[in-house]
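User: I'm putting together a teaching handout on how multi-component assemblies are represented. Below are the sequence lines for each component of a complex, exactly as they appear in our records. Could you produce the 3D structure of the whole assembly as structure tokens, so the students can see both representations side by side? Please keep the chain order the same as the input.
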Amino acid sequence: MIKIVLVDDHFMVRDGIRAILEDEEQYSVVGEASNGPEAIELVQSLSPDIVICDIRMPQMSGIEVVQKITALDNSVRTIMLSMHDSDEYILQSINAGAEGYLLKDAGKEEFLKAISVVSKGDKYFSGDVSSILVRSIKGSDSSNISAIDTNVAKKQSSKDLFELTKREAQILRLAVSGMTNKDIAQELNISKRTTEVHRFNLMKKMGVKNVLELNNKAREYGMIP
Amino acid sequence: MIKIVLVDDHFMVRDGIRAILEDEEQYSVVGEASNGPEAIELVQSLSPDIVICDIRMPQMSGIEVVQKITALDNSVRTIMLSMHDSDEYILQSINAGAEGYLLKDAGKEEFLKAISVVSKGDKYFSGDVSSILVRSIKGSDSSNISAIDTNVAKKQSSKDLFELTKREAQILRLAVSGMTNKDIAQELNISKRTTEVHRFNLMKKMGVKNVLELNNKAREYGMIP
DNA sequence: TCAAAAATAAGTATTAATACTTATTTTTTA
DNA sequence: TAAAAAATAAGTATTAATACTTATTTTTGA
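Assistant: Of course. Below is the structure of the complete assembly, with chains in the same order as your input.
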């Protein structure tokens, strides 16, 4: 179970994010803060895995919050939420120690992907943001290019979040295309019973109870085209 | 069964389109032409419902072809295929009598939606194209605005293509969300047997044999969000 | 090289979906 | 207001999926 703390001065935003995460079993929103000092307190008392923090808040900015959180406990991963994709903000967030930067107009799918990528220890920056990064990195020394990956390279990590094996991922793709276990067995030259086990295991790993939920979840995480 | 004639000087393009349409039971590609005169002949002998025509061809341009076809038989609906979204081409196509304008880089989904919309008597213009239309209409008199609708307003007409009833469309949405017949019955306060019948009927109408194919097809046609 | 992980496959039950048909009651709408 | 269309629901069978467990054989990685 991945523990998440939400930091945003708008109740509506926190509530929206909470609603999205409530449908996902592997995540649990353990706390909410509406300002910086509260957030820092919460992180100390709850030691969450991920903090999702708005960049623009009264009193203390998200940048400062992330800076302080990272200084206190650098096992906590932070994702910045922002309205804008200005170079300034993004670079400052990275320097402060943020592992992700998401525009607020990102869809649910991208949002979940960002969390899944960051929770695996990778970094996530939404589409437009990555190009800004690339631009800024081109001017500097390239020693940290491997450390800052763009989301393009992270497509396959959603598979890892659920720890699917190669065969399971393969069967997932075939199953959501509408093939029955029998069809899949024939296609892969294995027994129907084997595909049943694979399907059972992968459904358990992904926490779904029928093929359609499997399909919907796989789509949400961008695991299928 | 909706009869379609393909007109394009490239064999590969015709073949690709044919392959897409072969998976769709409600359509049948009854003829192919590689140039204008051939196309006109085919339309006269086969009287198809829809002609899909490339705009740029040697000898006779797609615009001319559509013009002549419309003059001969104005029950035939035409969709223009183009590489470019230039104002010129689009406006000329509309004047020639085309009911749709599709960029060649449109995906399968958009392609199918365009055909479904046009086959119902509506007009379809792909995203970027609509803005050009709006721009050109703004300068002229607005008497023909209602005649030229953009694809945005056409979302619901795919439901009509399969002639789904209101209840069927409702059950489609619930079914693809992962709900079982029992769940749906409870939700709608009807018997499980009733939802089974609705599901059976709607699957028959859409020509699919399980929920996942139903899901995939509904997505293809933009019937579900 | 050897232990751990993955892939294979069978067993046993239960539940849900698919594939129809028939038939009554409501709604629409021409 | 009568006829057509839609929604309702039951019947009967068959097939497929779901929910496990156990167990053997391959692969693979440290």
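A couple of points students might notice: The domain at 162-220 of chain B is CATH 1.10.10.10 (Arc Repressor Mutant, subunit A). Confidence is low (pLDDT under 50) at residues 133-159 of chain B.
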